[in-house]
Specification:
Elements (H helix, E strand, L loop, with lengths): L1 E5 L4 H12 L3 E5 L4 H7 L4 E3 L4 H4 L5 E4 L12 H24 L6 E4 L1 E2 L10 E2 L9 H14 L7 E7 L1 E3 L4 H10 L12 E2 L1 E3 H13 L5 E5 L5 E2 H12 L9 H8 L4 H4 L3 E2 L2 H5 L10 H8 L1
Parallel strand pairs: 1-2, 1-4, 2-3, 4-5, 5-8, 6-8, 7-14, 8-12, 9-11
Antiparallel strand pairs: 10-13
């Protein structure tokens, strides 16, 4: 297949691109800086800076949409929130406009979202039909998803992985490791908030599974089968590193440092991959956090 990928140079995207290439697919990566493709991914990938049929070609079999401004690298001002929404909705809208120009439409669009779609769910078990708590992360993800679902009107199958916290060499774990490695890590806030994690290898496998199986459409919780609380995550990470994990970060300090964005650290979802398990019978390579962290760190 010829697969068009947005966000292909990011933490998740580069792993997806390499997996697609390993499976024998032709991969075109959309990037604002196409020369970055070669330095990040290598010479076997074609990079383009715009969605232009002359550049990409008139035949695209499938698309994987992972692009979006990083959500947790600065405080959420009003302008920052608007940028976070538009960076996701905007590129997805551009994809749909591009699809309309193609004489033969792609068969499938796998468009990322996040478990933040559900907002804070406290101790509720969260599956794909759980009603969301109306807050900014839901607004962000619902705008993203609704734009992706517009592709269905073009006859394109749309599958939406709602991604949890990705355990891999990069992402959120890179920000946690320095403190934990010197024994200064610990729970955040109360520690009772849930952290729906997933190993990067499982996430990549799930994205490719959704791409390749024609019965898959709609939202899927792309999370591991055993969610943990923040306190359990800190304890497990400390154990894997053979370091204590007893120094907490109080909620007040988090709120002062991060403002509203601090809710990413102090709230969560006890999300489970119900559709993947019940409908697709997906088998996870890493079904416990301890195994996932041991593999990564």
């Amino acid at each position: 297949m010829h697969v068009l990928v947005t966000g292909g140079t990011g933490f998740i995207g580069r792993m997806v691109c390499r997996a697609l290439l390993a499976d024998g697919h032709e991969v075109t990566v959309l990037s604002r800086k196409s020369d970055k493709i070669r330095s990040v991914l290598g010479d076997k990938f074609r990079g383009v800076e715009s969605l232009n049929t002359n550049l990409i070609g008139s035949h695209v079999d499938a698309a994987v949409n992972l692009a979006g401004e990083p959500i947790a690298n600065r405080r959420w001002s009003k302008q920052r929130k608007e940028l976070l929404i538009e960076s996701r909705r905007g590129i997805t809208h551009q994809l749909n406009e591009f699809f309309t120009q193609l004489p033969t439409k792609p068969s499938v669009l796998v468009s990322a979202s996040a478990v933040g779609f559900y907002g804070d769910q406290k101790d509720n078990i969260v599956n794909e039909s759980t009603p969301p708590n109306q807050e900014f992360t839901h607004e962000l993800c619902s705008n993203w998803e609704n734009e992706a679902l517009r592709a269905e009107a073009l006859g394109i199958r749309v599958a939406i992985p709602r991604i949890g916290l990705v355990v891999g060499k990069g992402g959120f774990l890179d920000k946690m490791l320095p403190a934990f490695k010197i024994g200064l890590g610990g729970k955040m806030g109360s520690g009772r908030q849930w952290m729906p994690w997933i190993h990067i290898q499982d996430l990549v496998s799930i994205i490719l599974y959704l791409l390749n199986h024609s019965q898959c459409k709609g939202p899927y919780n792309a999370v591991g089968p055993t969610p943990v609380t923040n306190a359990e995550f800190a304890k497990t990470l400390g154990s894997v590193l053979h370091r204590p994990s007893i120094i907490p970060m109080p909620t007040m300090a988090i709120n002062l440092m991060f403002g509203e964005m601090g809710r990413l650290l102090t709230t969560g979802q006890k999300a489970v991959p119900q559709r993947l398990l019940d409908e697709e019978h997906y088998t996870f390579k890493f079904d416990t956090l301890e195994d996932a962290l041991k593999d990564v760190v």
